[in-house]
Amino acid sequence: MDSKLELLLNDADQNIKSITKKVIAGERINDEEGLYLFENADLPTVGALANFIRNKKHGDNTYFNRNFHMEPTNVLVLFVLILG
Question: What's the whole-model pTM score?
Fold first, then answer.
């Protein structure tokens, strides 16, 4: 097991340890396991699992997407403010 994940899992229950072993083995978790993590795992544990997968797929690279969305309501508000 990854040593960083081991540190987070010292106090984790058996279900979280089982899910972590699946993640490390490269297996997909099912809906019930995802829900269990959402309801029972703390944020550092979920973050460490997500980072493990990201690191496995992309190495030490991180990608960001920056978007600007102009919704019709934003345009309407802008016109009201300008024409007000």
Answer: 0.66
